[in-house]
């Protein structure tokens, strides 16, 4: 099995590895001093006049694109460089006028075989790739994209916790564009551990300074990003054409310099060629869409606007009703919410002639009412959105204490923000004392003498405050009945707010997706795969197109891919507008989306690492046995057992289990338990966490070697920490080395002390999650082998952590599904073999099922019905190994 993966990775990866090495050693010609003002590509070679060409030639190039965002997401100009020549590209809209159509950049010369291996290097290169014409053809050509930001993350990145620490050594007034020594605080520098010098943020300038020029020999002006401000309009770009093109070319030079420094380092970290194959294939993700995409955007926005209109209308009606109390001689003081508003008002004033003053604003209305009014008395009106501070009071929001079965009115504290008021007295004492009481003073009466103020619970802990009860963090409290109202209109407004929450969070990202649709003349490129398409497909009238996702193949120190829209999209929820987002990725005519989720991937990886320690037998440890033998239906799997210990549901138990496996401690478990159940006390949460960790992780072994015993997961944790604290930690299967920012030797201080436990959570997390990335890269390598060997009409669509999807022609669905099952068998066998275990339990050998579907969704039978998508999407089907 190891020989198989060696051969498969060699076939797929060696042609690209050779090109990458050649580019890393190449010398480039001098950058042109002037740039040609013409549409399309221009070539600049030494000793030859600039000439118009169809596309850059060469099989390895560095590439950068600039866009004028106010003019749209399409490219404005680009620069590329090879070892032979420089190239510049200008859009027709830039050269010929704003009335020209938007265009993409052709990157493959007409006389070049599209299937030939070719490497394009860039920094955050998926942005550039999304503006290249050939990338929107369904057929998978030979071009692969190498991201220098990804290479840097994998070799010199640091964890999110380290990023906070790293900031302590910065001089706030000094830009990183100058040099590292100036950027870091000299007084603190001598106290800084080595890892502080081993990485940087991910911007092009930061990585260049860290990787190429830490001493600051290059003039900061050469790397300045101020020129980017010129791209505010096409006219500004035209006026400064030479400057902005040179700016783009300097980015190409900086990217090349980074690449030539960082590639040898990346290859030294890499233990197997499958890592490179996985990274390169992930640079080619492709999301097919059709007319449903625009319909999704339009309908989501329409329903959202209508829901918000109704919510605002409810709030205005409630405000009008409340304002009438100004005539009632202080009756508003009897209302637990309205009593805290400013009820001062000015009566109508009259002239000597007995006529009302024209410029008096809303006479007779209370001050809070005036603050919500926009415009003149005659033509204006109340403008109240859920985000306004008065909204929770008009809606009569209450915080419900589940333990006491009591509800208390919300109140806004000038310092501690939103909280609730509790009558003084022992029988009203809230169950969670971490959030109060705090000092407060009622603005209009003496309520503070009879009531205590408590802050609203916060998922970030008792030191945080709530600025808006309608914020994202508080939606779950509305959903589970902790933020409530007895007013029917208010309940409807809360429901509308919940319905709009997902679309509010995703609408900007969804609308900014660069979607390229066919224009009938180029329809074939959206439907041809492995050189073939059918007349039936080409005759279809359905508009089709594609989205290139903005993927960073290695986006975290664990090498997990990062993408802001598609890799974070949730499953459709019946009450949430726009939550059917993922289902808008739909297969073209004649194709299906075929893929699977790896069953309990990281759980199995962690358990088999523990099994290796105890006799190298699958299921040798309690955790290994539970992973293989336990079932969800019987309540004997790990997540069900954890749920029983903690008294929570199984989905919440999953989060606990993976957090624990990633190295998080008891404090994490206690805080997470309080997050899931805000009514539990801190002491109860700590006791539950203590019980869980004693049952699972066990007890620490005293002594220098450390380790754990007497817990169901003790062998696993001992093995993970052994790997994490090795002199040079590497993943146990593909042997990828940990980032320099987490190397144990780089935690050395000026007194030569090494803290082996520092950032241990991040390092243990790296072992598990980076091994899961190895699993994914092996899957991609295996599927590439099957597609090549058997001529399958399939290409990678997307990977989302433990999920992988392919676009597959209808006639090859069964073969691709079978190849996926075999891939799971091969990859798990590879893991077992690398750990010295030369058999594999049948229960984990194959996927539980491979999904075959027309749309992208978590389960083939999800209806995808939401307020913005009332129609049921017909179900797909599943193929198990039988």
UniProtKB/TrEMBL annotation:
Its EC number is 2.7.7.7. Keywords: DNA replication, DNA-binding, DNA-directed DNA polymerase, Magnesium, Mitochondrion, Mitochondrion nucleoid, Nucleotidyltransferase, Transferase. SUPFAM superfamilies: DNA/RNA polymerases, Ribonuclease H-like. Gene3D superfamilies: 3.30.420.390, 3.30.70.370, 5' to 3' exonuclease, C-terminal subdomain. GO terms for molecular function: 3'-5' exonuclease activity; DNA binding; DNA-directed DNA polymerase activity. It comes from the Eukaryota. GO terms for biological process: mitochondrial DNA replication. Pfam families: DNA_pol_A, DNApol_Exo. This is DNA polymerase subunit gamma-1. It comes from Monosiga brevicollis (Choanoflagellate).
